[in-house]
Every structure is written in structure tokens, then in C-alpha cells.
Amino acid sequence: MTQSIGIARAHTNIALIKYWGKRDKELFLPMNSSLSLTLDAFYTDTKVVFDTELTADSFSLNQKEQSEKEIEKISRFLNLFREYIGEKRFARVESLNFVPTAAGLASSASAFAALALATASALQLDLSMEQLSTFARRGSGSSTRSLFGGFVEWEMGTCSEDSLARPIDPADWDLAMLVLAVDTSQKKVASREGMDHTVATSPFYQAWVDTAKADLAAIKKAIAERDFDKVGQIAEHNGMKMHATTLSANPPFTYWNAGSLLAQEAVRQVRQDLGVSAYMTMDAGPNVKVLCRASDVDKLVGALSQHFPADKIITSLPGKGASQLTEADWQASLERFGAGGQL
Description:
- This is diphosphomevalonate decarboxylase.
- The protein is an alpha+beta fold.
- The protein has two domains: about 5-170 and about 320-340, 2-Layer Sandwich (Ribosomal Protein S5, domain 2), CATH 3.30.230; about 175-315, 2-Layer Sandwich (Alpha-Beta Plaits), CATH 3.30.70.
- It has helices at about 70-85, 105-120, 130-135, 145, 190-200, 205-225, 230-245, 260-275, 295-305, 325-340; strands at about 5-15, 20-25, 30, 35-50, 60, 65, 90-100, 150-155, 165-170, 175-180, 280, 290-295, 315, 325.
- The strands form three sheets. Strands 1, 4, 5, 6, 7, 8, 9 and 14 form an eight-stranded mixed beta sheet that branches.
- The longest helix is centred in the middle third of the chain and has 20 residues, at about 205-225.
- The two termini are about 35 Å apart.
């Protein structure tokens, strides 16, 4: 076979119990287990073509050829699959990111989840999604969770084979998330760099690890009981604890900017004034995500629009797991991207 093709879509996820720190940088094994909600508003479509005619791997993102450094990163990831089955062919990788890149909106999660599924599809690998998540993890830890929909747990595991993701709840009980996109430009401190610096220098870091396990157990119990307020309270506290570790790193840094602080205060004010359950979380970026009930979305958007332009408030319902696409789907995505559908 001279050519084999796989195309896949994966949605982003927003961690409610954060992944922040690795105990093994080579295998991407986390310091703690984490839990997320997959979103339907943001996603990555990726096409992978293995071809005997190719003499090297290539990679384009959003229809732009990428640097040698980025291609090397993709090649290392593809090598995991090539070495697994003895594949010798190089590949052409094309990705369309319907997510602002490197802005703390989990673009790497959807990107590597889509790449993992597209690669496995092209090579016709017989892997469960849990097994596939152990491959995806080696590209981006949070991508393990983007292979599944709803609430997803990434189990820290004891080794590479059992550090994997599993779905725990479909999140089909009146849930939604708002994204207050205060700044979608590329962040100054990459997640990986910031994570490593925090682990190495923050005196608060061990407290983060010590409390994350209890947070995870508590939020899983709240999800099982469908106790929305408890889920939101745990998620908000966990996110703030993560950011406290960056402020205590040496030298200190933060992913927040002035807009982040205004967004946080706006959410608190709206929560108080409307008496609506709405809880914040933030990843490694300045944007604020608000977990809420789907039935409260219109009310919250109306109130928050007094503080932010309407185009900076993005609403999302829970998303589904990664899926394979057809060539027709891919062409439709190209058309959408070309028509300005990208964020």
C-alpha cells in the first residue's frame, strides 16, 4: 500500500481538577490525576497521509507550513506509532485549529487527540480509546481527555501503560460553559515551560499535589450525585490553587492579565446580583471559563455583556469524544476555515 489516510476531529477540554506538573517529562506522566469537561465549541480537524513517495514528514497548521522545530515535534509523535508497528513511511500532516492557539483554551489537547486518532486510523491500528490515550498523552498530557466526551478523568497511573483517560459521566444534566475570551493572543509563557518552572521552584507546589487527590475524589462524588454547586465550588478552588503555585514560583509569574481580573470580578458580581450558580476556572492562559447550568446561559450572557463585548463571550455545551471524519467532512472544514470560520 503506497498511501493510507486518516482524518479525525477532537474537541478541547477544560480541566476542573487541573493537571499541572509532570513526574516523568519523557513519558508525560503527571504528578496527579485530573478531571475535565469536553466542550463542543472548540475543536481541531487533522488529516494524516502516510505515503511511500514522501521523503520526510511535513506539517501544516491552519494552511501554513510549520517550522522545522514544529515538524520535529510532530515526527517524534508519529514515531511512537511507527515504532509500535514497524511502519517505515513518512507522513503529511494537515491540521485546522478551530481554537485560538496557545491562549489557554486547550488547543494542544484537541490537536494531539485529533492527531492520535487520525494516525491510528491511517495505520488501521486496533486500539481502544483508552489505549490510544496513552499515545496521545506523549504529545500533550491534556489530550488524553479530549478523546472522550463529557466529564473525563485522566488517571495518573503507575507507568506509561496505565496513565490513561476514561469517561466518567456524559455531562448531560443541564451543563454549559462560558468562555470570557479576554485575550486570545499567544501567551508569553508556554504551558510546558511554566509547569516545569513551577514544579522546580514553587514552595507551594507540594501542597498543590497533596490536595489535588482530595479535590478529585470530592468532585467525582459531586458529579455522581449531580450536585452542580459542589462541582463548581471544588473546580473554582482547585483552579485558584493552581495559579497560586505560579505566583509563588521563583521568579514568580502569572498567566493573568488586567482583563482576567476584571472577568473574575464580573463573574463574582453577577453571581451575587443574580443569585445564579456560576463558577470560574482558568488554565495556563488569561481567559476565564465559567461553569454554569445550560438553562442559565442566556441570563448570564446578558449580565456579563454589561462588562464584555458580546463577541468575547463564547458559549459551549458539553462536547463529544473524538471521531473519524470522511474526505467530504475534511473538504467542508477547509471551506469553513477559508470562509473565516476559524476563531
